[in-house]
Amino acid sequence: MWEFWIRSLNASTIFAIAGLGEVVGQRAGVMNVGVEGAMLFGATIGFIVAKTTGSYLLGFLAGIAIGALIGLLHAFFTITLHGDQVVNGMGIWILGFGLTTYIGSPYAGPLGMGRIPTIGGLSPFFFVALVLTFVIWFVLFKTHWGLRIRSVGENPTVAEVSGINVVRTRYWSVIFSGAMMGLAGAVYALDYNPVWSYNLLMGWGFIALALVFFSMWNPYILLSGAILFGALWQVSLNPESFLPNIFSRYIWRTFPFVITIIILVIMSTHWFSSRWGAAKPEALGLPYEKD
Amino acid sequence: MTEIKQGDIVLQARGITKRYPGLVANDHIDFEIRAGEIHAILGENGAGKTTLMSILFGLTHPDEGEIYVFGKKVNFRSPLDAIDLGIGMVHQARKLISAHTVLENILLGHPHAGAILDMKKTAEEVKQLCDAYGYKIDLNAKVWHLSEGEKQMVEILKALYRGAKILIMDEPTSALAPPETEKLLETIQLMTKNELAIVPFITHKLPIVLSVSQRVTVLRRGKIVARLNTAEATEQSLAMEMIGREVLFNLKRPDVKIGKPILQVENVSIYDDKDYWAARNISFEVREGEIFGIAGVSGNGQQPLAEALAGLRKVSAGRVLLQNEDVTRLSSLKRWKKGIGYIPSEQRAVGSIGDFSLVENLLMSYYYDDQFVKWGLIDTKKIRQLAQELIEEYNVATPNPDVKARNLSGGNLQKMILARVFSRKPRLIIANLPTQGLDVGAMEFVQNKLLEEKKAGAGILLISEDLDEIMALSDRIAPMYEGEFMDILPGGSAQRETVGALMAGHKQKAVQA
Asked: What ipTM was reported for this prediction?
């Protein structure tokens, strides 16, 4: 049982870090559905750099840097060129999927470095995620910075006449958001499961994306959701130890994704938006054009 | 900054010119504003007010001309530059973030807001401002809970807290109920005592201009046509300057025999988009040759009611009868066929399709007519012919009927929509804010057309936020407040004050009066 919870919390770390990044971007009004793509980049580049240099630090930094670069790319297309956020996000996913497969294949296999030390099996990154949750909550709700980020996500026109530089604020938010996704990917490939293989993330980025909607854009709820999904994931991997012989293991494997779909469907209903819709950043998904 | 005294020139514009393709929006505008004065800038839609306002607030860059603030020449790159120099703006469409609290809105973008927000200190400082002007407002309330008047207060507070010395107000009274307007006027007069210069930009509501301002500058077609001391001006003279000809302020209400009821609404209740009650237990009837006016400030349920009667929104309880036939559950199309004509409040979003030509827009009321569409094929020649006739009859300024609807001005587009609806000879017309946003000339045209329809025996349900319009046109008046009719008054004898009080929810006061 202990083992199960440790594995769950380690998995939730990755959902949480990626999800927190997406929360910041979406609070600023920019949705990036290519979380999976950005994470794949972070995982693959981080893995390659760590393996070739033998340095974990450089690996993580490379993961963060490539994530930030993907964020910058997303920002350029959606903010400067007013592209459709969903379409561009899908583009990032497809690009990430294809390119990392190409770049990563020669490095397929285990990392071959000493494992990062744990605290009774628990990854130190779990504590990083805890700190990040608090810091991001504090910044978003208690600082002028956060007020500016939330304002450009709610109503960029109003923010502009209040003297806020909408474009700059959105750019930084999206770049930060990408860096977090890159870090999440690097944590997966260097710490959680240090083996590079084809499509190594198996859709975790999409779960992180769904968690953002589930969280009502609140970092604390996001963390709780991440832990819930971390546990669900472990259940889906080893269903026999909980409910033996009920379904085939392959059906169990779909559970986190089925639940993700159900959450997204519920969130998009009229019933939901009329009760809880106020939490959603009003300008989410809308390009901002000055007139 | 040196001490400003009453009467000092605080802002001066010299030769401001702004050209857009095919039009000069501002043509060598010169004027100055003094500390402690209310200086109204008056003009029809399209006279160049919005452009001038944007230039003064740094949103638009003038092609020529200079602006001096407190005697220094300035060059605004963005609104931030203007704000920093002490220019505040109260927008017509509220520039507030509804999901944030009042305090968060006031603090947003403030230069003294530290990295970590000190809500307590700000709250105290804003409280002082509130006390100074007699404002009562919950600073921690979310903005979407507030009334229009309160939202405007927040905007004013925000500008003052930023240190505004010159307050530009865009149509400050357009969304307010009469008592809120009075409160606003009181406040701005109080503000001028503190050397604040106030510059309201106004399209209509001439009495308000006359009651509070010291000076008036009138714009027409991008040029200043008059600079007056308000004491020397009259309502008629200002209107004449604005549109360049005399306007009839007293519309002649034709003597029409009121006939049988056309529309009967019985205990109708409607939900809004958020599943709250938008209208409850509404009962009334509209008769042949009658204009039934619903007066009210926007957001009190008029819009959902109009949509429900047009078949665009579900009626949750009650019945709607059209010429004694139950139409409560009928689709919009069936209602059009049975003789309902609907003029929606949003000309561009609901009343027309911007990328379609006028002919295609006209077809939206004719596609179900066998005379124009046979076997699914449109008789292009015939509909084009009709479009041409209507354009002439309704005086729509357009080179030809193939122009896209988006290229028409508000007034011309509304004329086209009226033409489309009225040419179907409806028995019942639902006119939702038919003159909102129109200039005085177009407004008069629309009002006269409504009276013509009345003469022809149609029943008209007129929904308007303009009390003068309601008073001038309606045979009966229902002031609406928070989804309910406060009363139904006879149009001829109703007092303006009574209706105003009722539409602000003061039932008690009205009974006494």
From this structure: 0.82
